[in-house]
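User: Could you write out the 3D structure of this protein bound to beta-D-galactofuranose? I've included everything you need below.
Assistant: Certainly. Input first, then the structure.
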Amino acid sequence: MKKLAKMTISLLLILAILAGCGSSAPSTEGKDNTEETTKADDIITVGFSQLGAESDWRSANTDSMLEAFSESEGYSLIYKNGQQKQANQITAIRTFIQQEVDYIVLAPSTEDGWETVLGEAREAGIPVILVDRRVNAADKNLYSCWVGSDFELEGKKMAAWIKAYTEGIGVEPSDLHMVNIQGSMGSTAQIGRTRGLANAARDNGWDLMAEISGDFTETKGREVMAALLKRFDNINVVYCENDNMAIGAIDAIESAGKKVGSNIKRGEIMVVSFDGVNKTALEYAKEGKISCIAECNPLHGPRVKALIEKLRNGETPEKFNYVDETLFSSVSGVDEVVVDGQTYKIERNY
Ligand code: GZL
């Protein structure tokens, strides 16, 4: 019995101590927890699914997002690099849903195949903001809004510059023998820029001989250009849908013993490009190795943050938010172009 009594007393003593420990904890832990909770409540968590790191444009875009959604700005950004694969981006979005982030930002690799996962985000009550490229979705309520460039307008502006310049030096439209080194197929940037050139070639009677994807990378741009030079001996205009591919293409042209430049009449091969982010490309444009670059501005971080802040304030942002962009060139002869009634001055200092 004694043993039992002793055991009972010890047990009661242990329970008393445990109860005591519990009583002091809530006061300190409670305060800490309250502060933690308060801090956590203030921080806005944003899940950002970036498509990859294929170009200087993409890196600048990522940096802009990371800077805009910093802790000091009251945000916690979860960045996921999709490595050019839509499947990885879909997985990232599902992870953000499980993590119950406050907002999802998606830079989609290509336009198709997003309805299901965007529907899951909507089911979870998480607003989605699209940045840069677009998604093909009949139900536009699958996302709150989009911010980016008008890619077909970029293509139209570049085509207008080509028309103005070549007419100015007296080259007949049918004597323009062009190739288009396209971006990643099915991406909004590729679709728009390709359409801009193809429509202008049709309308002006230019000889658009080939359209082949260089996937927005320098390596692929070099490979594709080398293959095109083997296939055609009369190329005099190379339309590259981004700077990284233009750099690769120029390397291939020079390696084949040909000269890049705007003097088509003297047998030079005219290279034009898009973005205006890569330092080498901008240098080339200053030297005239790239005859014209259509700006594609990557600095969407502050723009996306402004859209999220509108949503946080209960406002309804514009559904589609376009960025104003210009053309960079050091080639004389064209000071402005007019597209759809709008005048675009050529930027000479960049
Ligand atoms: C355009 C963007 C394109 C850039 C490329 O907004 O989607 O993707 O032009 C980038 O450089 O890879």
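Residues 259 and 266 are 10 Å apart (CA to CA).
User: Perfect, thank you.
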